[in-house]
Design brief:
This protein is of the alpha/beta class. The protein has helices at residues 15-34, 49-55, 61-69, 89-96, 145-158, 175-192, 207-224, 245-254, 266-279, 317-329, 333-348, 354-357, 368-378; strands spanning 2-9, 38-44, 72-75, 101-107, 123-129, 138-140, 168-170, 196-201, 229-231, 238-244, 261-264, 287-291, 296-300, 351-352, 364-365. The strands form three sheets. It has an eleven-stranded mixed sheet with strand order 2-1-3-13-12-4-5-11-8-10-9, sandwiched between helices. The two termini are 21 Å apart. The relative contact order is 0.17. The chain binds 1,4-dihydronicotinamide adenine dinucleotide.
Length: 379
């Protein structure tokens, strides 16, 4: 018998509602798939408003200590407390646990209206670097003393000519950061039998950052996965190729079936994962995970939706599908398939939450709780 501990954070706003719907679905899928021989052991950790109410802190040390030793975690959305001096709790956790890969699978669910003719051709998993590039960006405002100093340094020491009135920014990208992200993407593609990994970059313009990402990515493929990867144009297991970011956006719309796993830097990944999710009409269902070398934190990609919190209107689908990703990652693939299948059935039955009802012709609107019950019944 395998029991895996999953630490969970309910989250703020709609968090408790979507949790109440999601967790029974995951437990039921485990039960159905393994009849009690494998199970999840849920351990709650406090963060956000609930933590503040109980402990006076938004991110208690006990939560951080538990996560430091954890492998599996799942969280609802956390609001960023308003006021000076508060860092986003999400960013704090991502940095503290070095969750360097933000992974988002994007596919179409039958019945959901999409802005494109063939949304079903999209089946991609985006690996977005989560710690460098603009996330580690250093910026100085136009006219500030810091900007002036930096521009003077560039001119005097490096002979680089920058307009003295410019705002300036630095985006650092390292070999270590780029390689570990690409390594993860290739490992995933090989394990899942995916046919390609595409390195998406803007290396034609930003040669020492984005261009270096491309070069380091190919280095990983050639040096560490020689038996697994081939380059474009060759026959083999996982094809590693690259596309310039702007061309990739065209490809996503015109030939999405030619792309499977995407490995990219922080800013490109931000754009591409949202654009793809919108392409399949699935922003409200998009799941995700932020992963480091030990901890994987699965989470809904939406926020706390304060205007509908407590009104039984939220769509729990994103958290439920994030849970399916967790099951896959933990080696419970049969349970994960049950969860995804049940979401598909619920959408086909066209009894859905308000956000989806507007995207599914002829749909009947139900609340968060009822939608969760329909998915649960489908297991
Ligand atoms: P949001 O995702 O909470 O809301 C955007 C829109 O989508 C709203 O109209 C909302 O009602 C709707 N929506 C979101 N999730 C939904 C669901 N499950 N079912 C139905 N409708 C849904 O984004 P917003 O308003 O920018 O942020 C609100 C708060 O959430 C902020 O404090 C922000 O910092 C936080 N946030 C947290 C995230 C996280 O914990 N990963 C991610 C994004 C935002």
């Amino acid at each position: 018998m395998t029991q895996r501990t999953v630490y969970f954070i309910e989250g703020d706003g709609i968090g408790p509602e979507v949790w109440a719907s999601a967790r029974p679905v995951l437990d039921a899928a485990m039960d159905k798939a393994y009849g009690g021989s494998n199970s999840l052991d849920w351990v709650e950790l406090l963060a956000g408003e609930k933590a503040f109410a109980e402990t006076g802190e938004y991110l208690p040390q006990t939560t951080m200590d538990a996560l430091a030793k954890a492998e599996l975690a799942m969280k609802g959305p956390l609001g960023t407390p308003v006021g000076k001096g508060f860092r986003s709790l999400n960013v704090t956790m991502r940095q503290a646990f070095d969750l360097y890969a933000c992974i988002r699978p994007v596919r179409h669910f039958a019945g959901i209206e999409s802005p494109v003719k063939h949304p079903e051709r999209v089946d991609m998993v985006v690996f977005r670097e989560n710690t460098e590039d603009v996330y580690a960006g250093i910026e100085y405002a136009s006219g500030s003393a810091e900007a002036k100093k930096l521009i003077a340094f560039l001119r005097d020491e490096l002979g680089a000519d920058v307009d003295p009135s410019a705002g300036v920014g630095i985006k650092p990208m390292t070999e270590k950061g780029s390689k570990r992200l690409v390594r993860r993407a290739i490992e995933f593609a090989a394990r899942e039998g995916r046919e390609s990994v595409t390195l998406v970059h803007k290396g034609n313009i930003m040669k020492t950052t984005e261009g270096a990402f491309r070069a380091w990515g190919y280095e990983v493929a050639e040096q560490e996965f020689a038996g697994t990867c081939v380059m474009e144009g060759e026959e083999g297991k996982v094809v590693v190729k690259d596309r310039i970011a702007d061309a990739m956006f065209q490809e996503c719309l015109m030939r999405p079936e030619q792309y499977s796993v995407v490995a990219t830097s922080n800013l490109n990944g931000d754009y591409i994962s949202d654009a793809l999710a919108a392409q399949v009409g699935g922003l409200g269902l998009a799941p995700g995970v932020n992963m480091g070398d030990t901890l994987a934190m699965f989470e809904a990609t939406h926020g706390t939706a304060p205007t509908i919190a407590g009104k039984d209107m939220a769509n729990p689908g994103s958290l439920i599908l994030s849970g399916a990703m967790l099951l896959d990652h933990a080696g419970f693939g049969e349970a994960a398939e049950l969860v995804r299948g049940s979401v598909e059935k619920a959408l086909a039955a066209r009894k859905v939450t308000v956000d989806l009802a507007s995207q599914i012709p002829g749909a009947q609107q139900v609340g968060c709780r009822e939608f969760g019950e329909i998915i649960l019944a489908g297991i």
